[in-house]
Amino acid sequence: MKDMQGKVALVTGAGGGIGRATAKLFAKQGAKVVVADYLAEAGEETVSQITADGGTASFASCDVSVPDQVAAMVRYTVDTYGGLDYAVNNAGIDPEFALEADWSLDSFDRIMSINARGVFLCMKEEIARMKGKGGSIVNVGSFASFAGVPNKPSYSASKHAVLGLTRSAALQYAREGIRINAVCPGGVKTAIMADNLGSLPEGGEDLVAQNHPIGRIAEPEEIAETIVWVAGSASYMVGHGLIVDGGLAAG
Ligand SMILES: NC(=O)c1ccc[n+]([C@@H]2O[C@H](COP(=O)([O-])OP(=O)(O)OC[C@H]3O[C@@H](n4cnc5c(N)ncnc54)[C@H](O)[C@@H]3O)[C@@H](O)[C@H]2O)c1
């Protein structure tokens, strides 16, 4: 893994799960990290874990669906640490588990506003700071960026949008030294997954694990490894949606 001393990383949704693991790994590689989340306590906990390990991090409160807050978060990153080399747009929600007839417009709007609009807003501000200097952006998509998911139409639509935003922006900014990619996980052991498993009948957890050819769902650290590698090391990867799913999409 690349030495990231002197580099600056911003991770949204870093108060837990994949985002926290990613922020911690950036810090371990030597980067200064801005931990962004709309939950202050969770974000501050990530900062504490990083600083306890000797890393450098600070918290930015931000709801990624709100333009002013996103602008302030990116401004804070540059003001605090002097630049922006890596940005990981990871914040996302997956609350929906509805029968088709029960699809709710409110739920669609909420999911799209965080998962898709959030990535749009973050990239817009991040690219503005990276122009002329270069940088690398990793958006967190999903297996659902490539496939429909029964009972999750809005989530799947939002994650398809993440891929569309990623590819289009990547094409536009590749020649300016800004690499933009997406990492697309299958099931990962986080709060989102716990919520989803909680709504399944008895034995559902095992079924989800067995549905992955590898026979288990991922640890957040396994996804973080991929994200940080794509951000810092994958120098010829542009506009790619990298599936990391224990073999799910291979079948
Ligand atoms: N866990 C999985 O199985 C899985 C699979 C594929 C993709 N993903 C994606 O990975 C990303 C991270 O999810 P996770 O599994 O780590 O879940 P998580 O719930 O553990 O972490 C998500 C974090 O995002 C934050 N967040 C949510 N909405 C926000 C907003 N509007 N503004 C700022 N922060 C916000 C939450 O507070 C939380 O800290 C999401 O985009 C999710 O869709 C997860």
Give me a quick take on this structure.
The protein is of the alpha/beta class and 251 residues long. The chain is built from eight helices and seven strands. The chain has a seven-stranded parallel sheet, sandwiched between helices.
Structure report:
The chain has 251 residues and is of the alpha/beta class. The protein has one domain: Rossmann fold, CATH 3.40.50.720. 46% of the residues lie in helices and 16% in strands. It has helices spanning 17-28, 40-52, 67-81, 105-130, 153-173, 191-198, 204-211, 220-232, and strands at 8-12, 32-37, 56-61, 86-89, 135-140, 178-185, 241-244. Strands 3-2-1-4-5-6-7 form a 7-stranded parallel beta sheet, with helices on both faces. Helix 4 links the parallel strand 4 (86-89) and strand 5. The chain is globular and about 50 Å long. The relative contact order is 0.15. The model has no long low-confidence stretch (mean pLDDT 94). Nicotinamide-adenine-dinucleotide is lined by residues 12-13, 15-19, 37-39, 42, 62-65, 90-94, 114, 118, 140, 142, 185, 187-188, 190-193.
Structural domains: how many:
1
Q: What is the distance, rounded to the nearest whole angstrom, between the alpha carbons of the first and last residues? A: 30 Å
For CATH, the homologous superfamily is named as NAD(P)-binding Rossmann-like Domain
Number of helices: 8
Structural class: alpha/beta
SSE string, helices as H and strands as E: EHEHEHEHEHEHHHE
Low-confidence stretches: none
Overall pLDDT score = 94
